[in-house]
Amino acid sequence: MKQSLNRKFIIGLVIVIALSALTALLAANILYMLHSKPKMDQALVDTAETFVAGLEKADMTEAVLDEHLQLFTSLGYQGAIVKREDVEGKDSDVVDFDTAAVTLAGEPFDRTELSLANVRDVMDGGVYQGEAATLANWFMMGHFMNDVRNTVGVPLEVEGGQYALFIKQDSALMFSEFHIIGLVFFLTVFIVGLISIIIMSRRMATVLGRLSTAADEIRRENFDYAIEPENYAPDEIGQLAVSLDAMQGQLSENRYMRQKFISDVTHDLQSPLLNIQGYSKLMMDQDLPKGLRQPAEVVHQEARRLSALARQLTVLNRFDDQTYQVKHEEIRLDRQVQEVIRAFSWRLDQEEIDLSYTLDEVSVKSDPHLLYNVWDNLVSNAIKYSGPGDEIFIRLTDAGDRVKVIFSDTGVGIRKEDMDQLFERFYRVDQSRSTNGSGLGLAIVKETLDMLGGEVEIESEFGSGTTFTITLKK
After folding, report:
1. Which residues are the signal sequence here (predicted)?
2. Fewer CB near the last or first residue (10 Å), C or N of the chain?
3. Strand (E) or helix (H) holding 168
């Protein structure tokens, strides 16, 4: 909508206006051809015949014929008189009124050629009413063309000589001041209407843009965004604003209830899980029969896994609540990463995985608890998707104003189709290993780095291992 709602509306409006204008022009031309033009031509023929009848009644002579024609055309007509003797014996099929011996009166014609057959037909007693088949005459503007073919012709006999009289209304007079005023009127209406609609469309696009922003904020779970439906007009858009505001309130309430539920459940789970871990560990330390030791180990491992899941849910719940205050403390990253590695040393030995590292001595100002969760999840993830004989390598590099931490493993790798969903909550790449993870670790990594202003990049080839590159500001 940003790019184009207003533009699309205006383009659509221009298209509609153009189509409407073409349709109106077509309808007007059909009306002109079927109704107006025959009536105007007939009225002009009647005028010409009346003029001829007056001349013949007054026993007009050739000597004064030109004067009467000039007098007649002074009333707003253009005229021409052609004598039979002047066009007989011509080789051409057309008569050029500009070069032939033709008497002209009134404004000169722009186009002066007329078919010789039409001229003879008039002299033989026929009536000429323009060339209806001419393309220009299918349009109204053809009526205003200063063309001798737009005239009407009637026969005239003076002193025994046969003539053809051609007349038409003066084109300049036909396009009168009234037509100019009408044209200005319609152009003004069109321009003012177009400008008004553009302004209205921009206002509508602005209002819809505000609602679009509100919808985006709700999608991001920013339920504190002020929609203010009272500032919208009481129309369909205003009703949409009211509905969005109500939806925002309901979603905010649902989020609060969800977060409270997760917080209560994870808190209540920790105590019994710790008890289960403690007693299962105690049982494992005793000299148990062979058949009981394995169940005790399973109970202990599952309790640890559930406890880790509860902790991760607590972390995500705090992120969702948006009340977590990020700390900015001086942290020696190399020492923190070494601490995480030591915490996993027993598991690395158990899984027969070799871990090596190269750590620059570098410090950053950040949240130590959040960063510890990042390294913890990345090491845990590398172990989970590696097997006996695989290797994990960690490199910490001081890059000036930034720090890069690289976690590489030679484990199973990740398929291309899984890459886009890798950081989604509860998404597990390898379902066969679903009992070993919750699908929350990498989601916590991504959301934590977003909070801290860091970045995470991933490169992987299925069957050859995975590399996570973490970039932090100092």
Report:
1. none
2. N
3. strand 161-169
Residue 152: closest CA among 114, 202, 201, 209: 114
Encoding tokens for residue 410?
């030679």
Residue among 371, 372, 366, 364 at smallest CA distance from 400: 364
DSSP 101-154: SEEEESSPPSB-EEEHHHHHHHHTT--EE--TTSGGGGSGGGGG--BGGGSEEE
Amino acid (1-letter code) at residue 371: L
Rounded to an integer, what distance in angstroms lies between the CA atom of residue 66 and that of residue 71? Answer: 9
Closest by CA to 150, choosing from 40, 246, 54, is: 40
Query: E strands within 277-349?
Result: 329-332
**Would you say 153 and 146 are in contact if contact means Cβ atoms under 8 Å apart?**
no
- Strand arrangement of the beta sheet that strand 465-473 belongs to: 354-359, 391-399, 402-409, 465-473, 455-461
Kindly state the tokens that stand for 280: 């299962």
Distance CA(233)–CA(228), nearest Å, equals 11
Tokens at 79, concatenated? 């005229």
Look up residue 33 and give its DSSP letter.
I
Give me 126's structure tokens: 């026929």
DSSP structure string for 421-465: TTTSTT--S-GGGGGG--S-HHHHHHHHHHHHT-EEEEEEETTTE
- The token pair at 228 is 């203010």
Half-sphere CA count of 181, side-chain side, radius 13 A: 3
Which amino acid is it at 98?
D
Kind of pairing, strands 329-332 and 363-366?
antiparallel
- Give residue-wise pLDDT tens across range 272-325: 877 887 777 777 777 767 677 777 777 777 777 677 667 777 776 666 666 667
How far from 38 is each of 54, 128, 137, 140, 168, CA to CA, in Å? 24, 12, 12, 12, 14
What is the pLDDT confidence band of residue 149, given thresholds at 50, 70 and 90? confident
Rg, C-alpha atoms of the chain: 47
For 156, the enclosing helix (H) or strand (E) is: strand 152-158
The Cα-based distances of 467 to 386, 389, 394, 421, 470 in angstroms read: 13, 18, 10, 16, 10
**pLDDT (0 to 100) of residue 135:** 47
Specify burial of residue 137 (Cβ count, 10 A radius: 0-12, 13-18, 19+): buried
Please tell me which residue, 437 or 163, carries the higher pLDDT value: 163
